[in-house]
Amino acid sequence: MMKKFKIWDPFVRIFHWSLVIGFTANALILDEEGQAHIWVGYAIVALIVARILWGFVGPRSARFAAFTPNRKQVIGQISDIATRRRSTHLGHSPLGALMIFNIIGSILIIGVTGYMMTTNAFWGVEWVEEAHEIFVGWAEISVVLHIAAVVIESLRTGVNLPRAMVTGVKTVPADVILKE
Amino acid sequence: MKRIIILALALSAASLASASQTNEIKGKPSAAVVEQITSGLSAEGYDVRSVKTEDGMYEVYALKDGKRYELYFGKDLKMLDTKNDD
Amino acid sequence: MIRINADKPGLLLALIAVQTFCAAFFLWDVMSDAFPYGLSAFNNLHLTIEAIAAFSLILAVLFEIRYLMALLRHTAHLKRQVSLAAGAFHEIMQEHFRRWNLTPAEQDVAGFTVKGMSITEIAGLRGSAEGTIKSHLSSIYHKAGVTGRGTLLSLLIDDLVETPLVPADEERAQHQA
After folding, report:
1. pLDDT tens, residue by residue, A23-69
2. Does residue B66 sit at the A interface (CB-CB below 8 Å)?
3. Class of residue A160 by CB neighbours under 10 A (exposed 0-12, middle 13-18, buried 19+)
4. How far does the CA of residue B67 sit from the closest CA of chain A (Å)?
5. Could you count the other beta carbons within 10 Å of the beta carbon of residue A100?
6. What is the dihedral of CA A143, A144, A149, A151, to 10 degrees?
7. N-terminal to C-terminal alpha carbon distance within chain A
């Protein structure tokens, strides 16, 4: 007996998958020296800025205030995983929220350093390019961890998280503990 | 746990092994090369920002008259190509 | 038996986060330095040591995560400011669970059952179906070599009665002081 909950609004969902496409294109497909790379980079930054604004004015599940975790919640979730208890959050889980802030912050740094590389002031300045590359590497590792975590959490709790980010609806098995 | 470690080591070794092993320009340019290129270009009015290697050539980022340039040099330090970024 | 300080799992978590970022950085650094040269890059001692450092940092993070999980399991049923007796009982219980090779789920169920909770209550606390809890209990009793909750408790209490709360040497020292 599964319970259904409407969670993610259309903007959050479109934002998520557009970011996936944009990041994949810039990190893996497009030529780094080309013009397309720069335009996609600016588009990604615009998406992130829009998401940040939405995090203050959007519906409940989109708001940062709704899922910014405190230490107790983070340790609580890790404890549940350690003891194999099945609990799930209707919005972003504490660890999920930390990953989101990590990815948003990293991509902003990537975008800003990328822009700086096109300016006269920072043209050829090595630390800017290095920072850009370091954070791209970090973002790639974060994305791999994010995908692994989403798959593992989905299997562990019985909630299909990727599908929820497409349809906006979380389907939760009957026994699973609901947090917040 | 052990399997994860061995797999990680194997994957890294494999990716490194597949990298090129030719004799062209690669890695960090020597201090002497950097000095030569920098003084040569500065004499022509360039503000040299960095000297690296890319695609088997020396790649230089420089500014001149408020414009951004990428300049490429071969082993003999002859200029091979110029790209204007604007 | 390790006396585990359960007060600061947060610090360990922060350490894990910082080390993960550093490990990622070092790994990226080594890979980008070595890549143009292929495997011959490791003829360079400096690079080889950096590579070893990066891998050992990753290993350290993995071990710390395992330790953190074990720590959280250990303290899942421990209340703060416990009496000497309750603390001792908890340690004895944990030691038995470890020796019986209880899975993490079984350890949690066993802890609740020793506290006297019903199958329904345990199912609610774990987000499981009651049938799942019953099969955990069956496995626990089998591994412990007991027939049910009553005999499980007697086994643990017997141990508590026989183990001194204060080690014998300390007790003698206290009397002489």
Report:
1. 999 999 999 989 999 999 999 999 999 999 999 999 999 999 999 99
2. yes
3. middle
4. 7
5. 18
6. 110
7. 21
Residue A97 CB coordination number (10 Å): 20
Taking the Cβ of residue C23 and every Cβ of chain B, the question of whether any pair is shorter than 8 Å is answered with no
Give pLDDT tens digits for C3-42: 445 567 888 999 999 999 999 889 888 888 887 777 777 7
Q: How much is the pTM?
A: 0.83
Q: Compute the nearest-CA separation of B44 from chain A (Å).
A: 18
The ipTM assigned to this model is 0.83
Give the number of A-C residue pairs with CB atoms closer than 8 Å. Answer: 65
Q: Per residue in A109-158, pLDDT tens?
A: 999 999 999 999 999 999 999 999 999 999 999 999 999 999 999 999 99
d(CA C28, CA C31): 5
Correct CATH for C84-162 of 1.10.10.10, 1.10.3720.10, 3.40.50.300, 3.40.190.10: 1.10.10.10
Superfamily of domain A2-179: Transmembrane di-heme cytochromes, Chain C (1.20.950.20)
> Domains of chain A: which residue ranges?
2-179
Interface probe with C: pick from A2, A79, A99, most Cβ of C within 10 Å: A79
Supply C13's token pair: 């978590």
